Amino acid sequence: MVTLLNKRPYFDYKNYSVPKDNPIHTTGNDRELYEAIKNKVIFCNVVIILAGVYSSYSKWINKEIEIAEYFGKPIIAVEPWGSERTSRIVKEHADRIVKWNTESIVGAIRDLA
Q: Domains plus CATH for the chain?
């Protein structure tokens, strides 16, 4: 998704994702995970969450949703390309649900930011 957004002309954004090489992914406890996510979400205008079926079982996703809602950040659920099954949990909490399409994602960001 970052590649899609980076290639979109006339669209600037800041990626507040917790970097995948951050040790919190493998060595952090639940509290550290919560704080790492919170420290990113507070700066966001919107929170984008992939709505793949795996999301229903991710402790990351649940924390992202909880924190986004606590801070009143709109949630954009992005349905993966070609996906037949998607996360009910993510979609129930989303302010907008879009397909894996640059224009749909950018449009939702602009509408909700």
A: 2-8+45-112 (3.40.50.9200)
